[in-house]
Amino acid sequence: MVKPWAKTRARIISWERRVLPFLKQRIPSHIRHAWDPHKSVAQNLADMGLAEDPNKAVPIPKKLLVRKGLESDGQQPGKKIVRKPYVVTEMELEASLPEKKSNTLSRDLIDYVRYMIQNHGENYKEMARDEKNYYQDTPKQIKRKINVYKNFYPEEYKNFIASLKPEKMEVQ
């Protein structure tokens, strides 16, 4: 016998799998603020000057239709009235901004790499045997981490290496 709540629970889980991912998608703030909940999707997008169907927005040129043996319906798309042009301009401005560099390394990794270079120089085998190598990285893994640090912070790396050279001269 099927438990009375089993079908309801299955329906809820199915809804969560199908619908929730679409609800969680990020909608740009320009569109969200200009959206009128009393209008359809097509009407809202037309008011903003956006296309609901890209195939209708960018028509196929007549030359291509003739080559493929297709006939066009002869309708010329007329100028549509854009009631909310600020949405398109804001989206264009946002798209023209340079992309932020979000690649950074953790402070722990930076400290680890600096410690290894400071104490062992370029000797990766010695670095692998160091007691601070908590994750038991192999020499190749340590070398890769150092190269990542070099690529992310080239100026900081050059300054760090330059500051190490006077220390080595004093030791000798």
Automatic annotation (TrEMBL):
This is Nucleolar protein 16. Coiled coil: none annotated. InterPro entries: Ribosome_biogenesis_Nop16 (IPR019002). One of its GO terms (biological process) is ribosomal large subunit biogenesis. The keyword Nucleus applies. One of its GO terms (cellular component) is nucleolus. It holds the Pfam family Nop16. Keywords: Nucleus. The keyword Nucleus applies. It comes from the Eukaryota. Belongs to the NOP16 family. It is found in: Nucleus, Nucleolus.
